[in-house]
Amino acid sequence: MEYVISVLLSGISVGGQYALIAIGYTLVYGILRLINFAHGDVFMVAGLLGIYLTAVLPIPVSLPLVIVFTVLLGFTIERAAYRPLREAPRMSVMISAIGVSYLLQNTATYVTGGQPMTYPTIPFLSDTVNVAGTQTKWVVIITPILVLILVTILSMLINGTKIGMAMRAVSKDFETSRLMGIKINLVISVTFIIGSALAAVGSNLFFTNYPAITPMAGAMPGLKAFVAAVFGGIGSIPGAVLGAFLIGICETIIKGLPSSWDVSVFSDAFTFALLIVILVFKPQGLFGEAAADKV
Amino acid sequence: MSEDLLRISDLKVSYGGIEAVRGISFNVRQGEIVTLIGANGAGKSSTLRAISGLVKPAGGKVELEGEDITAKDSSVIVSKGLMMVPEGRKIFPNLSVLENLKIGAYLRNDDLTEDLEAVYGYFPRLKERSWQAGGTLSGGEQQMLAVGRALMGRPKVLMMDEPSLGLAPIVVQDIFEIIRRIHENGTTVLLIEQNANMALHVADRAYVIENGKISLEGTGKELLSNEKVQAAYLGAKG
Lengths: 295, 238
Known about the structure:
Chain A is mainly alpha-helical and 295 residues long. Chain A is 71% helix and 4% strand. Chain A has one domain (2-150, 184-287): ABC transporter involved in vitamin B12 uptake, BtuC. Chain B is 36% helix and 28% strand.
């Protein structure tokens, strides 16, 4: 029983971390119809920034700085690699995103020398706590709570503020948004800023559970978060969050099955099998909108 | 006479080498309804798109109250007081009716209550449906929403691109009635229409556009009685 609880807890926690990345994919897709392949690598860079900054600065200063620098990175990527291609075919922007992804990975390899970097132990997050008879880290408890808080704030921003209204308008119709006086580029920048900030928070939580970061460390979580976003219906924030929790929980359950069954090695394959099944039966994803609402 | 509010001089628009608008000049004075009529593809919409900053003109000049606003960013043009009701209404289907109206006032930071009341005065249906998603409205209601949305920006010139397109004749009459009332309340209107009959009846002055150039101009009444216009646009039998 305790084992089941601990598996579930860590599944929820991993799911929450995927959710923070998945929101970045789904927001950007919702507005630009672009799968931002570099997003997982931005997440990895946030992890490295965490390592380098906590080494020289106290935690209360360095962690907010990680968010600031990650936001700057996301903002710069959009300005430099996507904005000049605004009028280009979508495929060109996608290639540009893949290019940025490799640029970040290679730069990380250059800076770290390709060595796995040890993620610092963040006091409190790494401390252990007793829940329902099982020992776990605080990060496992905090992640889902933090995700819920951040998602609530994000929903209020999108549904209750002027810039949120502009984001929803731009996601439907660039040209008419411009006729309202909305500055499209500003709205897109805001989208990248939000996505990067959430990825930075996610990386801090995610890597606390992992001993080390390699330049490839963003690829798999990024891919899974992307799957979560598609699974939930890309463009939908609640969809991405729900999809991420489901994937996180399923994956952890498979990893936690008795070792004599020898299936834990398939946990990644399972994620993608799940995606295929969902897309066969529900091509729009859980909360994806039907294409028919184009008026 | 009253001064030119909007002056277009020798405006040219081309798409990949094809000239859609080949040197159009006209003016709109304070308090007028001016209409541009013409067949499909004559260059009417391209003219409006160039004025509102959606496409960069290949040449010519757009001036609002004497200020050159040629090829400025749309948000600048909107802030100067040009609002457009786009062709095909283009309301935001995922925003509520109220939000659709509010987004028309996106660049304003003052109180919107009065303006909302004014728009609801023109279109009581919108008030009843203010919480409904814009996409759930009928075509006629969406057109009203698109007009109301543009009015929320307190335009100096309200530009309308084919407001009657695809609407039932009775709804078209409603729309033109509203255009008349908006005009009576002091808004200057630049109207583009294929429905020449309705447009010429409501307009103070009109221009006929053919193949990207102005071929005729005059008051609405003059053009209504012009034989060429009757033959080409009003369906009168020659």
